[in-house]
Amino acid sequence: MPGYETHISTKPHQAQTYARISGQDVHSWWTSHPETTSRQGPRPAFPLIGIARDFGRNSRLLVAADYDLVFRRSRRSADQYFTVLFRPNRLGYARVGLAIAKKRVRRAVDRNRVKRLIRESFRNARPGLDGLDIVVLARNNTARADNTTVFASLEHHWQTMRNQAIKTNKGPALN
After folding, report:
1. Measured between alpha carbons, how far is 134 from 71 in angstroms, rounded to an integer?
2. How many Cα atoms within 13 Å fall on the side-chain side of residue 119?
3. Domain locations along the chain
4. CB count, 10 Å around CB of 155?
């Protein structure tokens, strides 16, 4: 087939320019309007360097046997929003398990909010709770409580755990 390459240009390809926007003005609107920011917003700076802010596998009770041990041999802290069970572990760091029953917090959106608040409160309190396994159980009033009330309740429980650990030096017996 002679001539099939005759329509191919020998000039290098030129970038197309658009008639409505000139090349230098394409991104000028974004740079001249500082009110347009990232959708995620600024990331908070945490002054506590060296303290784990994550909620990884080593921060959670993962196995049913760990939950059973806490349910069988634990100390208790309770108020109108939560019952918190805790006991020492031999790991040297705190772990938390969540037991948010559908019977206590009906709607999934409320259960997820409560779990999120517990995890965040635990992240903040974790450095002072070293060596404890903790199970947090929701009570009937939890879904109706606002975030500030939930945080205050959990902070009270964390402080109770710290005080009991100091009072008994190591907490309840491991046996």
Report:
1. 10
2. 16
3. 57-168
4. 13
CATH of domain 57-168: 3.30.230.10
pTM: 0.65
pLDDT at 56: 80
Secondary structure in 3-state letters for the chain: CCCCCCCCCCCCCCCCCCCCCCHHHCCHHHHHCCCCCCCCCCCCCCCCCCCCCCCCHHHECCCHHHHHHHHHCCEEEECCCEEEEEEECCCCCCEEEEECCCCCCCCHHHHHHHHHHHHHHHHHHHHHHCCEEEEEEECCCHHHCCHHHHHHHHHHHHHHHHHHHHHHCCCCCCC
pLDDT of 11-31, one tens digit each? 666 665 555 655 555 555 555
